[in-house]
Amino acid sequence: MGLKCGIVGVTNSGKTTLFNCMSNTKAQVTNFAFSTAKSNMGICDVPDQRLGEIHQIAKAEKLIYASVEIVDIPGLAKGASIGEGVGNSFLADIRLCDTLIHVLRCFDDPNLPHIETTINPVRDIETVDLELQIKDIEQIDRKIQKVERVARVGDKEARFQLEVLNKYKSHLENFQNVRTLQLADNEEKVIEDMSLLTAKPIFFVCNVDEKSVLTGNAYSDAVEAYAKEVGAEVLIIAGKLESEIAELEAEDQKMFLEDVGLSEPGVNKLLRTAYNSLNLISFFTVGKKEIRAWTIKKGMLAPQAAGAIHSDLERGFIRAEVIKYDDLITYGSELDCKNAGKLSVEGKNYEVQDGDILHIRFNV
């Protein structure tokens, strides 16, 4: 299951710097607004120390981490929905993303002017939200026009859809995002095929100066207060510091992090937060050739998890042999887990848990 994360924010907020810290693709960073009119794309691994610990027990030729596709959307500006800045060029890329990482400028730098002249991250949130809300209203209006024609001839389902669409439109016209509107499941299904921009999960990344990385600052405090009201998560990261960390070898990284008081690079937390924002979990397969993390939605059953490996495994699923990660670490080998009664045989109704080590039995 692929995960695509879109990095959004106003121009000169530090989006591309963070993208370069996470991705295997390096993009040009400039001090100029709208210096690029296309998105940068790259792939990165989701950090998971459990893979390394499993490798200490069951040696394999290689480790394969769960991966995330990162899309660095060009910087936005007021009026982007009607063509200002890079205009609508970013909208298709945002629509294809599963979750959004909103990077906010929370630092002062006279050599890097803000497009609005002053630093105000809450205003920047509202700027981006408004542009996305406008596009969502346009899309809902188009669907309302189609549904209205059917509703006029007495179609009950069309009338229901029209009522729901007007609820969404009213919510957006009150400067609210779709993700904050609470509706019944059958009402949510009315828009599930529309990929509305403000329906996507989002969390905020406060890009602060180095001295504020542990404590935050007045700018990030304002974001945290705002995020609490809308139920969003906030991470504090120093983009410039992260770019320095990313250039170091693993051992040097550890020493550098200790010097600045961090336990790990901030981008690791960022990637895990993106992963969790969509209720994704990982299970593992262990073999001599590879130890691998597989991504599934929380709540998936064993046959669906098998399908993440290969469709044949789902189609011919017989059973799953399951060892819990904690049990493997405690007992030290799969054999010892089996002897201790810690290997369970599960059928088609087993709900796979985060960290499960699975061996799928199947017959096609």
Write the layout of secondary structure elements.
Blueprint: E1 4-8, H1 15-22, E2 40-45, H2 49-57, E3 62-64, E4 67-72, H3 91-95, E5 99-106, H4 121-151, H5 156-173, H6 185-188, E6 202-208, H7 218-230, E7 234-237, H8 239-246, H9 250-260, H10 266-277, E8 280-286, E9 290-297, H11 302-309, H12 311-315, E10 317-324, H13 325-331, H14 334-339, E11 343-346, E12 356-362
Parallel strand pairs: 1-4, 1-5, 3-9, 5-6, 6-7
Antiparallel strand pairs: 2-4, 8-9, 10-11, 10-12
Helix pairs in contact: 1-8, 4-5
Mean pLDDT over the full residue set: 89
Outline the low-pLDDT stretches.
27-35
Estimated structural class:
alpha/beta
**% residues in beta strands:** 15-25%
How many helical elements? 14
Number of strands: 12
- What is the makeup of the main sheet? 6 strands, mixed
Gap between N and C termini: 22 Å
Radius of gyration over C-alpha positions, nearest whole angstrom: 23 Å
**Helicity range of the residues?**
25-40%
H/E series, N to C? EHEHEEHEHHHEHEHHHEEHHEHHEE
What does this structure look like?
This protein is of the alpha/beta class. The protein has 14 helices and twelve strands. A hairpin with a 3-residue loop joins β8 (280-286) and β9. The longest helix has 31 residues, at 121-151. The protein is flat, with a radius of gyration of 23 Å.
In a few lines, what is going on in this structure?
The protein has 364 residues and is an alpha/beta fold.
